[in-house]
Amino acid sequence: MKMSKLYMPTLREVPSEAELPSHKLLLRAGMIRKLVSGVYSYLPLGYRVIKKIENIVREEMDAIDSQEVLMSAIHPAELWQETGRWEDFGPEMFKFNDRHNREFCLGPTHEEIFTDLIRHEVKSYKQLPLSLYQIQTKYRDEKRPRFGLLRSREFIMKDAYTFDIDEEGMRKSYYDMWKAYEKIFERCGLKCKVVEGDSGAMGGSDSHEFTAISEYGESNIVYCDDCDYAATDEKAACLYEIESKNLEELSIEKVHTPNVKTIDDLTEFFSTTSDNFVKTLLYNVKDEVVAVLVPGNKELNEIKLLKIFKVPEHELFMAEESQVKEVTGAEVGFAGPINLKKDVRLLVDSRVTKMKNFIVGANETDYHIKNVNYGRDFTGEVIEDLLLVEEGDKCPKCGSILKMDRGIEVGNIFQLGTKYSEGLNATFLDENGKERKMLMGSYGIGVSRSMASIIEQYHDENGIIWPLSVAPYQVVVTIVNVKNEEQIQLGEELYKELSSLGIEVLLDDRNERAGVKFKDIDLIGIPIRVTVGKKASENIVEFSLRKEGNKQEINVNEVIDRIKEEFKNQGLSV
Amino acid sequence: MKMSKLYMPTLREVPSEAELPSHKLLLRAGMIRKLVSGVYSYLPLGYRVIKKIENIVREEMDAIDSQEVLMSAIHPAELWQETGRWEDFGPEMFKFNDRHNREFCLGPTHEEIFTDLIRHEVKSYKQLPLSLYQIQTKYRDEKRPRFGLLRSREFIMKDAYTFDIDEEGMRKSYYDMWKAYEKIFERCGLKCKVVEGDSGAMGGSDSHEFTAISEYGESNIVYCDDCDYAATDEKAACLYEIESKNLEELSIEKVHTPNVKTIDDLTEFFSTTSDNFVKTLLYNVKDEVVAVLVPGNKELNEIKLLKIFKVPEHELFMAEESQVKEVTGAEVGFAGPINLKKDVRLLVDSRVTKMKNFIVGANETDYHIKNVNYGRDFTGEVIEDLLLVEEGDKCPKCGSILKMDRGIEVGNIFQLGTKYSEGLNATFLDENGKERKMLMGSYGIGVSRSMASIIEQYHDENGIIWPLSVAPYQVVVTIVNVKNEEQIQLGEELYKELSSLGIEVLLDDRNERAGVKFKDIDLIGIPIRVTVGKKASENIVEFSLRKEGNKQEINVNEVIDRIKEEFKNQGLSV
């Protein structure tokens, strides 16, 4: 492609709306444009990267005998109602009616649609196992779309679904997909950690997330360097242990604590440390208030709470002020387990039961109670682990200190078991003619999100540094001065020769100052650069790699060998 | 691909919902499945054909320097309101609100979205001309979705948009696209006629439709064998001429015509021919009734009426019974231009003014009036041409008798002029620094509809006969008896050898009776067939083409040459 014809509206200014490197650079490099909040258009260079990623996905899916299909983006409500997810998804689902007033949604995922297809088509164990995938546009009406392609309302996904006759088959399908995902992300150049995931709205038993390490990622991941343990912080088991202290249980005592509400205020007021407090958190779950008790120095993991109540995320939130007053009889900040004014469910993290003489709110404005002890002063439902893993916690598998990192969830794999085949009655006849439910898996890769994640991992202050495998073009030939005949001629010759070898080449033949051209080339991140300048008459050109920057003068005859070398270094062939 | 693993749910029965060959065969061959009315899923074989067509489109678009992008399927209402099309599209648009109650639609076409992109990005004549395209899913909430992929509510389109500085540039872009379309349809094997089109909701000046000839097509096209005139029947000028008769104008006379309403009844009653009548048709246009008069032996062309009233299709319909009674004072069937009870607009096709002593309704139940003459007995707005072209009409260009055919509109190209750049204020600065509106073109190809159209043109009673260029697989190697070791071995060898040459091969290794296999192979329409049967031990196989059927025994060594020969015959290379 000649850049004089390429539609590549680069920007010098950093768009004010963008915070993250990937978002800024995708806009600046003229690869995407915002239509409305969370909805983007892919311009020529950006869409070439998308197609590169899609092709890598296709090749690895085909390699494990998954077959490509394309399903609708508009789904009839009935199927989602059959599994109960029409309500579960809540406001995240775009919903609409057709001209006959039939209800539809824009598909946020496709478990219902694939299961519906298969229940009508597959009747016998002979037709299983089956693995189908699609690369398709998905929709989620995010509360706060942000970070460009990392959290958008319209996005490109690869989603796959497997159907097996038994658990063993399901686990094999899961394993195959896992291995394919590793290859896909490796080929895209993405450095990922595979962590135990939370199944969330998908349901089912086992799940893993492929997380691209990035300081701006929205996922917190926890892993152990001494063993293979790795999980999201939402899922990770917290091995926090309370030393059993052989202390005498003192008498409880009400203390006047005017306007002292937070743990920080309280530690100062009582001149003690936060591990001597127990926090009483009031939540609203399906219009009912529940109280949750955790040690004052630890955080509650809300995802663990969701699992106990078996509700979707949007149905759990902190109790409102009026509810707090009704339940505690006090202002916000003085809740505790003793003398609640209403009978509410009381969930207690198991560590609380091992603490001695701790401090809690008194359910009375400006008062706390000290020397409280579980069992003697109150009881509740004891839950083994409600805590969020934190820096310094120990690995639940080997006891070493866990490490934490941030990352972007670019892929996920779920063992769904029979959740959907039960909900939608997807059965088959086994070898003995007995009707059984299919065992399913579902697997996602965020294609557009992967593009942004690659940029998060590959950029510098001047722009993007694409890995060769996903670069919009592999090589750029820059004619420094387009008024110089020799430069034009040599540039065009190189362009033609490289193109004829199947190399994807940009020819920068724009009538711009050299500085402008080099800035653009840095910004759009083409991996291999050949610059045709003053020494064109001597058949000397400059060769450089975007990732290194140092330029070398070489004879034009060496160009192809040098390109081949870099292809080889990055695991590709010309 | 081994067919034992291929997801290809063929059906023996013809699905009752399907009327057209393409619809029946796509369902029977397991290529598509219906999700809901007008919404389909593409299964593995069907989606391979879609991708083949898409790639042909891509290559030809790239060849004319059109650049691929991908825009959103969800459009904010504001852009459509700016051009006034939010209302124009009426109930054909799927509309919905997001969680913040902002209005959106599912894009039925993308003029607004592309123009919006360009008005923000392109400021100078130096950035023009520009040609962009996308292959994307479109939505129209059709009143009566039917015929499978030919009239669906969700469909795959290639749409392109060009932006030029002047008329000349626009016409060149239009011509380039025209030529690219000819190549695309030719490569897909589609026999098309290019006809003058009606611009409809697109607006603009000039347009053409690419119509795949098919007896089941919904478009009627009119063309001349003696010159290059070709148009849709909606657009075609009707050259119907009334011989001026030097007859005396007789006195009008009211005739009792009890229960005689239709032209057929009337010709019988009056013992005359239909060209002695004038039909008075009552229409409802924006809640107002208008009367339209055409010769009794000709049909009104409603599209020509739409243009006069400048309203979209859904705002013009036949007047309701109550309106007819109100305007004529009579039952339906007795309308006429004389003594209307209400003052309505009266549109008169110019031929009516040349007729003598004709018969019309009397605006009184069971009465007609004869010997009516335009000018003497009534007047109205005379319109040059309101008639639909019919078999036997003459070519408006050369006067020869026109021919008529049916077809499917698979592509269309529009010169939009400044319709959208005015509506959305898309301007650029010309060489003199003067602000000017861009000249636009818009161009569509129905990708999914093309797939169905190819089947309409290529099938027989046993199934589909894919042209090699779009076939899901190019060759099928059938192992007749999968219990025979020699057959398996030879079949697998051939499969591997052909695959290694880059040929797309299916290996029918299914444990089914030979008859079942052959029926399936016929049905799915793979162009080249190699059958490995009893003579495998002698290295003899059967070679046949789906389009011919006659089988030939050849030595296995000849297979590749025979395949190459057929590739060459169909303009492809191995």
TrEMBL record, chains A, B:
Gene3D superfamilies: Anticodon-binding domain (3.40.50.800), Bira Bifunctional Protein, Domain 2 (3.30.930.10)
Ranges where the Aminoacyl-transfer RNA synthetases class-II family profile domain occurs: 33-467
GO MF annotation terms: aminoacyl-tRNA deacylase activity; ATP binding; catalytic activity, acting on a protein; proline-tRNA ligase activity; transferase activity
Alphabetized Pfam families for the sequence: HGTP_anticodon (PF03129), tRNA-synt_2b (PF00587), tRNA_edit (PF04073)
Catalytic activity of the protein: tRNA(Pro) + L-proline + ATP = L-prolyl-tRNA(Pro) + AMP + diphosphate
Top-level taxon of origin: Bacteria
Chief localization: cytoplasm
CDD domains (UniProt xref): ProRS-INS, ProRS_anticodon_short, ProRS_core_prok
Localization annotation: Cytoplasm
A Gene Ontology term for the protein's cellular component: cytosol
Keywords: Aminoacyl-tRNA synthetase, ATP-binding, Cytoplasm, Ligase, Nucleotide-binding, Protein biosynthesis
GO BP terms in the entry: prolyl-tRNA aminoacylation
EC number: 6.1.1.15
HAMAP family linked to this entry: Pro_tRNA_synth_type1
Domain remarks: Consists of three domains: the N-terminal catalytic domain, the editing domain and the C-terminal anticodon-binding domain.
UniProt function note: Catalyzes the attachment of proline to tRNA(Pro) in a two-step reaction: proline is first activated by ATP to form Pro-AMP and then transferred to the acceptor end of tRNA(Pro). As ProRS can inadvertently accommodate and process non-cognate amino acids such as alanine and cysteine, to avoid such errors it has two additional distinct editing activities against alanine. One activity is designated as 'pretransfer' editing and involves the tRNA(Pro)-independent hydrolysis of activated Ala-AMP.
UniProt subunit comment: Homodimer.
Similarity-based family: Belongs to the class-II aminoacyl-tRNA synthetase family. ProS type 1 subfamily.
Protein name, per record: Proline--tRNA ligase
Species name: Gottschalkia purinilytica
